[in-house]
Amino acid sequence: MPYVIAAPCIDVMDKSCIDECPVDCIYEGERKLYINPKECIDCGACEPVCPVEAITQDRRVAAEHADFVEDNQRFFTEILPGRDQPLGAPGGSNKTGPVGVDTPMVAAR
Ligand code: F3S
Ligand code: F3S
Predict the structure, then answer these.
(1) Is residue 26 in contact with ligand 2, taking CB distance under 6 Å?
(2) Mutation test of ligand 1: which of 3, 10, 15, 24 has the most ligand atoms closer than 8 Å to its C-beta?
(3) What does pTM read for this prediction?
(4) For residue 24, which ligand has an atom nearest its CA?
């Protein structure tokens, strides 16, 4: 059950969550961050540090943010605008660097 980042992160991007994650699986888009569901070990360390409470376990995401569960996954499994292949599981946000684009759902908000 991975953790998920929802709408409150958009245009806030506090990034305190990145410092807490022991496996470096929180990746940076243009206006929001995304947790890699294949790499997240469900430790929960990121959840309490987010000042806007954007992070929750996927099965506890509020109903109004339910579409963010799938959208966090899409960031890694689908080809993002301007790229030629999906991100997949690159093994660390730090070495990957800012991805610089968002999923179409986030970009449209
Ligand atoms: Fe976003 Fe909160 Fe992290 S605003 S960058 S999910 S600390
Ligand atoms: Fe990292 Fe949060 Fe998962 S700290 S391992 S993204 S629960």
Answers:
(1) yes
(2) 15
(3) 0.97
(4) 2
Using an 8 Å Cβ cutoff, are 17 and 73 in contact?
no
CB of 52 closer than 8 Å to CB of 59: no
User: Which ligand 1 atom is the nearest neighbour of the CA of 55?
Assistant: 6
Tokens of 59: 């099965």
| C-alpha of residue 57 to centroid of ligand 2, in Å | 9
In the chain, what are the domains?
Answer: 3-107 (3.30.70.20)
Task: Give Cβ neighbours of residue 68 (< 8 Å, ≥ 6 apart).
Answer: 4, 5, 6, 7, 61
- Please list the rounded mean pLDDT of every run of 10 residues in the chain (109 residues): 95 98 98 97 97 97 96 97 95 96 97
Q: Check residue 77 and give its pLDDT.
A: 97
33 strand-pairing partners: 28
